[in-house]
Amino acid sequence: MNKKYAYFIILFIFLLIIYQPVSAQPDNRTLFAIDYDYVSIEEFSYIYKKNHSGNDSAFTKSDIDTYLDLYINFKLKVKEARSLGLDTLLSYKNELKTYRVQLIKPYLTEKDVAKALLVEAYDRMKYEVDVSHILIKLSPDADPEDTLKAYRKAIEIKTLAEKGEDFGKLAVKYSEEPMVNQTKGHLGYFTAFQMVYPFENAAYNTPVEEISIPVRTRFGYHVLFVHDKRPGQGKVGVSHIMIRFTPGMNQQDSVVLRNRIFEIHERALSGYAWDELCLEYSEDMNTKDRGGKLSPFGVGEMAPNLAEAAFTLTEPGKISDPVMTTYGWHILRLNDRIPIKSFEALKPALSRKVEQDSRSDKSHKALITRLKPENGFVEFEDMVKATINSADSSAFNGSWRLPPESFSASDILFTLTDSVYTIDKFENFVNHNYRKLTTGTPATRTRKLYVMFSEYEIIEYEKAHLETKYPDFGFLMNEYREGILLFEIMDQQIWSPASEDTVGLKNFYVNNLSDYTAKETASLVIFTVSNDQNAEDLLRKLKTLITDSAATLDTIIERTESDQFRVIKNGTFTKQGGHIMDEYIRKVGVYVLENDQSGIKRILAVNEYNSGEVHPFKEIKGNVIADYQKSLEKEWIASLKKKYHVKIEKRALKQVYRTFGF
User: Which CATH number characterizes residue 177's domain?
Assistant: First the structure.
């Protein structure tokens, strides 16, 4: 070989050996390595503590060593899964993505704010407010001029109401709410989660008999008058009989219906069976076949007249007077009253409602406020203002863009630590989202889109850095990442093969018959007797009973019960090998055992014998599969330990011992 060529080969091999990326080098925090994959002390300690939480007795050197062996085996399987490319499969990536979406939720929630919202919602559920309102419609995307105009009008109405003008008349005159001519703005009683959050806030924060300041919701500006506030009544369960109205019904027909419902009411009060009345008269096809039973409801969840009538009933079985709603006439019968549950009982449902409700915006804003300084948010205000002010109507005509002569695509709007967000990124975001805002001036729409863009990127940046920012989250994600791989590789290498390999399974069964052979057992009872005469009496009774195939151990004891015989042992005896009883248990019968040291006779009755036969394969197939899987796994682990080099750092292991107090 050419010396120069040989030199380069040796140099290449040397460089290959010594050159490894920094992340692939062991350090004093490495507990063990599988080839060039390193597992840290922190990772192992985290997993060990998590899996032995609440079990203080598990923190011994022996337990740690045993778990370390298991963890190494686990890592070997995961390494093999990666070597087979299972971590590159689309199904794996999608499953991991789904888990990650769920796992990140607690890290993107302001816990203090979320808890405060839960407590606030529960406290409000304890009360109900009776409110009227006047609505001045305004689009959520309205420009500043229209917004100011609507606000001034709301202030004017508030002033008129405070001067003593009738609120209902003001509502008819000014409110843009549908049906205001019928309702005069009166909404009735409601509780938490039944109105949009800003409206709910105004209702609960305004004193009774007072007018609220104008409050803005997605519908516009509202002025509220709070009539009353009372303790929450929980839910009520009622059954009803309903006679429907027909739209456009004349006065004569209306009177006929009224007379009819009062006749039914008299029958109900006089003792007619409620279920039969429902079947015969009720026109609610959904409930008449089940006694008119409605799902439990609270205030604000049913027609106000019906709800008020239901809540006046105090005792189960009580029947209301006929009550009229927009649907028809109703007679109600109380089934039960359901009080408001405890905070802990309602907490899961409250959490879901808060997440889905507009009040979650409060938590979202608090999150953004926290993340900005944590992730180094720096905004270039002049560029942001120029971008917003440069937008014109052409920017929203199918492909959003700013005037090219004014800006460069690389102009920076804001930065986050090591990431830059430029106008071209903003344009791309807007082109996917501008249809969400359909009203308002171009500048107004662009301003809102910029807020959406910046908040979206702030949260996406946080998501991308959770593993480094929160080590526990990194460990948790790694658990899921490797857990999915473990499931896949175990299914491929062990579970499916063991179930599908019928020949191998039966061979395993045949080669391990001793593991599937039942032990020899006998059902027996041992008596002691004090003299020969008593012994003869007992033997005679036992021989008769033993020949009776229907006699059980309990019946034998029961029928030989006497002061002359005493049972000293009964139940199932398992052959133990070398035991004095082994020679007796193989045959059903009655035997006289040797006298004990005191001369008292012992008599044995064997009622049933099981010979310890091999369990048929079909009966224990599940057990055989499980054992076969363990055998295959043991062989597989042995092969993996030959394939990959495992090295435990003894100094690091001692440090683990010290971590747990050894």
Answer: 3.10.50.40
Q: From the centroid of its chain, how far is CA 610? A: 50
Instruction: Establish if 49 belongs to a structural domain.
Output: no
User: Angle, nearest 10°, between helix axes 471-490 and 90-103?
Assistant: 150
By C-alpha distance, which of 117, 98, 202, 90 is closest to 480?
A: 98
347: burial class by Cβ within 10 Å (0-12, 13-18, 19+)?
A: middle
Q: What is the pLDDT of residues 138-166, one digit of tens each?
A: 988 888 889 999 999 999 999 999 999 99
The H or E element that residue 47 is part of is helix 41-51
Give CA–CA dist 581/521, Å, rounded: 11
Write the CA distances from 221 to 167, 337, 444, 488, 608, integer angstroms: 16, 37, 19, 57, 88
Structure tokens at 431: 């082109």
The C-alpha angle with vertex 308 and arms to 302 and 310, in degrees rounded to 5, equals: 80
439 and 404 share a domain?
Answer: yes
Q: Which domain range does residue 137 map to?
A: 127-231
Separation CA 126–CA 121 (nearest Å): 9
Q: Which residues pair with 565 in a beta bridge?
A: 529, 562
What is the total count of domains within the chain?
4
Q: What percent of the chain has pLDDT over 70?
A: 90
- Tokens encoding 86: 């299972």
Q: What is the DSSP string of 329-389?
A: EEEEEEEEEEPPPPHHHHHHHHHHHHHHSTTHHHHHHHHHHHHHHHTTEEE-HHHHHHHHH
CA distance 533 to 609: 29
- Write down the pTM of the prediction: 0.68
Cα distance between residue 342 and residue 261, in whole Å: 39
Please name the amino acid found at residue 91.
S
3-state secondary structure 175-188: CCCCCHHHHCCEEE
Give a yes or no: residue 104 inside a domain: no
Residues forming beta bridges with residue 297, ordered by sequence position: 236
- Strands, sheet with 601-610, edge to edge from the N-terminal-most edge strand: 565-574, 521-529, 601-610, 589-593
Residues 312 and 382 in one domain: no
Q: How many Å apart are CA 260 and CA 281, to the nearest integer?
A: 10
pLDDT value of residue 20:
37
CA 644 – CA 33 distance, rounded (Å):
10
